[in-house]
Amino acid sequence: MKVTVDRRIYPESVISKAVYSLCDRYSIARMLASEHFEELEAPGAGPSFEADLLQALNDYKLRQIIADETRDVKTILYAAAFGGDDTFSADDVQD
């Protein structure tokens, strides 16, 4: 079974994580179809492969979005924890 994935929606890192998460159930080959599309093929896999792949892609895409949105907060917390500046407060954080 072949599935075409749009790399503009799912970046390479998301595709790699999704493929890795399924490697215990499927043997997946990755091929670039064009600049923006990648084909993932799992020979002998049934229709459940596509459903499993889409679930994994959406899961890792959401994880990436959450990581991107919380990166600044994590940086501020690390700076406050390890910066040695006791004058840092929540009022110092701005959008």
Please provide a written account of the structure.
By secondary structure, the protein is an alpha+beta fold. It has one domain. Helices cover 47% and strands 15% of the residues. It has helices at residues 12-21, 48-82, and strands spanning 2-6, 29-32, 37-41. The protein has a 3-stranded antiparallel β-sheet, with no helix packed on it. It is elongated. The termini are far apart.
SSE arrangement:
Blueprint: E1 2-6, H1 12-21, E2 29-32, E3 37-41, H2 48-82
Antiparallel strand pairs: 1-3, 2-3
Helix pairs in contact: 1-2
Assign an overall shape: elongated
Task: Give the proportion of residues in helices.
Answer: 40-55%
Terminal CA distance: 46 Å
Radius of gyration: 19 Å
**Fraction in beta strands:** 5-15%
Number of domains: 1
Structural class of the helices, strands and pairings?
A: alpha+beta
Largest sheet: 3 strands, antiparallel
Widest sheet: strand ordering: 1-3-2
List keywords for this structure.
47% helix, single chain, 2 helices, 95 residues, alpha+beta, elongated, three-stranded antiparallel β-sheet
Can you summarize this structure?
This protein has 95 residues and is α+β, with helices and mostly antiparallel strands.
